[in-house]
Design a protein that fits this description.
Oligomer: heterodimer
Structural class of chain A: mainly alpha
Order of helices and strands of chain A: HHH
Helix content of chain A: 55-70%
Largest sheet of chain B: 2 strands, antiparallel
Shape of chain B: globular
Number of strands of chain A: 0
Number of helices of chain B: 19
Helix content of chain B: over 70%
Strand content of chain A: under 5%
Radius of gyration of chain B: 22 Å
Shape of chain A: flat
Number of domains of chain B: 1
Chain lengths: 121, 493
């Protein structure tokens, strides 16, 4: 068991270091920063528009669909651009693989279209 | 000018995955094109797709030789084939259980089977992954659909709780595991498991790998719901649709064990001093805590959830004695695989009967099982058989699984292994109390609300119960059946 404990000394050191790092960074900044609290500084946006109403407000949830679709095409682009730059290098193999990739992603778009999420209501 | 070497893709080795992807795209398409007219067909398509994916597994097994692709990152060996077959069959039974449950509820049928097959696709990759990145991708592919499936009853608050808890803790575990993987990659400079084994060497080396191994193991301890990382399991199991609970407690857990086997017995093989005591502690507290909390449950699904936590503890035990066996680690891997296969049959069966009973009683409380024997003797006997199999009573399948675990623990013949064997034995006795309480409720208590109308069981649900019952009893009577498969299950590496 002593071998085990010795191996796990690293874990203890690691945990202690993680704790010390947080305490050290926060403590250091507390030591060297000036502290002059004013009511202005407690506002949500210190130099921005005065907040109106409570912190709880409803936001338009349907944007998430567009966010999801954006991610889908974004990921597609990440793979397609490097492939397009070296199109002649990958030849038929690359063309077929990319076609398979795009067809599978198009299923996602067809799904969104059939479920009517592309329509703004 | 860069040169490009076309990777050597063995389509035969990838055929099970390709068939599964084809099936799940077909389901999505059928759901989209025919909408309400053909939604009922999606469950049949899912079942057929899973069975079709078994065909290439059989041809690969007949063909026999091991295949390796992408620089050793994707290996199709006997271990991978056995585990893929287990995943596909477990998935098939879950589809059978789901057909009427999902069809009758206010659920999205097409998407449900699409998600289920996507999750199974991740599990198939997991069985072949021999590389940190492949393992991570497989884990996310199987987890993300599972988070959604857990919350499939979206108008039910417990369903939302199930999904949210599972998602948050799952993502947290992924982050911890990724950090561990990055440390290991930093030390060895490779993501391929065999290269990591060579890079880590054995015995004394860079101290930071202890942290890396610990974090990776903790990440998967969440997946297999080992104590103290089990807190999500009971709430998720209770809130999820019951077929999904069965799926999570069997297939998803098995996938976690597959990843642990790959990582521990290939990549971290030379560093037993780090993970052996860790697994000893995890195994001992997992089975003890799981069983003790299960004793107090009054809801059958929650009780089965804690019982599955405890079962994970038994399966963790062989990890704790690796290296002490005369025949190498193969014995430990075999014991875990044997347990996984038998556990899949017993646990799926128990959940299938709970689904069947809940069709009439609309409840999973233990009291609602009162007097089940009077109006549904067949179901009562089968549920008793499954819970006694889980308890490990011969001649039902579970005894052989327990025997396999105890055998390797005794074979190791070290004091620590013997202590663990005693812990397993004591826990089996504790577990018998709550398993027997289900049987007592069904056989000896009066019918809860006096309603003795028989339970109607749709054909597909009956088929799933039948499949599980036949395999549980067959394994118990002739354990050689299963021993043949688990004997195959070792890594080529």
């Amino acid at each position: 068991m002593s071998e085990f404990l010795r191996a796990y000394l690293t874990v203890a050191v690691f945990a202690a270091f993680a704790g010390l790092l947080i305490a050290g960074v926060l403590g250091l900044s507390r030591l060297i920063r000036p502290n002059r609290p004013t009511p202005q500084k407690l506002l949500t946006y210190e130099s921005g528009v005065d907040p109106v109403g409570s912190g709880f407000s409803q936001s338009q949830v349907r944007y998430y669909i567009f966010a999801l679709l954006f991610v889908m095409f974004d990921v597609e682009a990440v793979f397609i651009f490097p492939w397009a730059m070296r199109l002649e290098l990958y030849q038929v193999f690359g063309l077929v693989e990319m076609a398979v990739f795009i067809v599978i992603l198009v299923f996602g778009l067809v799904y969104a279209w059939r479920k009517g999420v592309l329509r703004w209501v | 000018m860069l040169s490009f070497v076309q990777p050597n893709i063995d389509y035969h080795a990838l055929a099970p995955e390709l068939v599964l992807v084809g099936a799940l795209l077909l389901i999505l398409l059928v759901d989209l094109v025919f909408e309400d007219r053909a939604r009922w067909a999606t469950s049949s398509l899912a079942g057929l797709g899973l069975l079709a994916a078994l065909i290439p597994i059989i041809t690969l097994a007949v063909n026999g030789h091991d295949r390796s692709m992408f620089g050793g990152a994707y290996v199709v060996d006997n271990f991978a084939l056995v585990m893929k077959a287990v995943f596909l069959l477990a998935g098939y039974v879950v589809v059978l259980m789901s057909t009427d449950y999902i069809g009758e509820g206010d659920y999205y049928e097409g998407e449900y089977y699409f998600m289920l097959l996507s999750s199974l696709f991740g599990m198939l990759i997991m069985a072949s992954a021999r590389d940190l990145i492949s393992i991570f991708i497989a884990l996310e592919t199987l987890s993300i659909p599972a988070y959604l499936l857990a919350g499939w009853r979206k108008r039910d608050l417990k369903g939302n709780e199930a999904s949210l808890k599972y998602y948050l803790l799952g993502v947290f575990a992924s982050a911890v595991m990724l950090y561990g993987m990055s440390l290991i990659f930093g030390v060895t400079g490779s993501t391929v498991l065999t290269d990591i084994r060579d890079g880590l060497g054995s015995g004394e080396s860079v101290p930071i790998i202890t942290v890396g191994i610990l974090f990776v193991v903790i990440g998967f301890a969440f997946k297999v719901s080992a104590v103290p990382f089990h807190t999500w399991a009971p709430d998720t199991y209770e809130g999820a649709p019951t077929p999904i609970t069965a799926f999570l407690s069997v297939a998803s857990k098995a996938a976690g064990f597959v990843a642990l086997l790959e990582l521990v017995f290939i990549a971290f093989e030379g560093h037993e001093e780090v993970w052996k005591p860790l697994f000893w502690i995890l195994a001992a507290i997992t089975m003890t805590v799981g069983n003790l909390i299960a004793l107090r449950q009054t809801n059958v699904v929650r009780m089965l959830a804690y019982s599955s936590v405890a079962q994970a503890g038994y399966m963790l035990a062989p990890f704790a004695i690796a290296g002490d066996l005369s025949g190498g680690n193969v014995g430990a891997i075999k014991a875990v695989v044997t347990y996984l296969i038998i556990y899949a049959a017993m646990n799926l069966g128990a959940f299938a009967v709970v689904i069947a009973v809940a069709r009439k009683t609309r409840s999973a409380e233990l009291s609602s099982f009162g007097g089940l024997f009077e109006y549904a003797p067949g179901l009562a006997v089968l549920l008793a058989a499954f819970v006694f199999a889980l308890a490990g009573i011969p001649p039902l399948g579970g005894w052989y699984a327990k025997l396999a675990i105890l055998n390797v623990l005794i074979d190791a013949s070290t004091p620590w292994a013997t202590v663990l064997a005693v812990v397993v034995a004591v826990n089996s006795v504790i577990a018998l109390f709550y398993y027997a309480s289900v049987a007592r409720e069904m056989l000896m208590r009066p019918v809860a609300d006096g309603d003795r109308t028989p339970v109607t069981i749709p054909a597909s649900l009956a088929a799933s119960i039948g499949l599980c019952a036949v395999s549980t009893i067959a394994i118990g009577v002739a354990p050689n059946l299963i021993a043949r498969f688990s004997d195959l299950a070792h890594f080529v590496s």
